[in-house]
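Explain the record.
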Amino acid sequence: MRSKAAAGLLNSAGFTNILNMSGGILAYDGGKAMGTEAFGVDQFLGQEFPDMFRLSYAMEEGMRQLYIALQECTDDPQTVEMLDRFARYEDGHKAKLLASFPGNEGEESQDVSKLEGGFDKQQFLDHYRVHLPEKRDMIELGMMLETQALDLYSRLSRETEDQQSNALFTFLASEEKMHLQVLSRELDML
């Protein structure tokens, strides 16, 4: 009944693509969120801004490297091209980070084993080397990682008291949101 009321409110606010699932959340049989609420946050706790910046930059680079490495897991030219585009988005994120926060340097030599949102890059590579991915798998993987990153950066922006760190995490959350929109369009086209 609550979701029906929420759907009615959204409809009256002008939203048109609203779904209210029969049976509610108990009937949901799709993807599940993983990790605790604090997942990924612990990497940033107790850090000064320069370290938070470098860690964020390294996570963007980790994502770029993941997309490039995943190209070797498929022989579909369209999937390879799409993964290349995804890698270039991460390059764009890194460039925007450097431009938006001048005086902070991202270090290419920093540990890039963690991805946006806090996931371990090697786990995904190991999985997809065994289970050869299709284009849809790669889009859904990207959406999952970007959603996790959006959630992480949104939580960090609310929890940090330092203005510069807050600006960093707010900026990163908006970048992840834009990237999610791109991935959503890719899925729609598929």
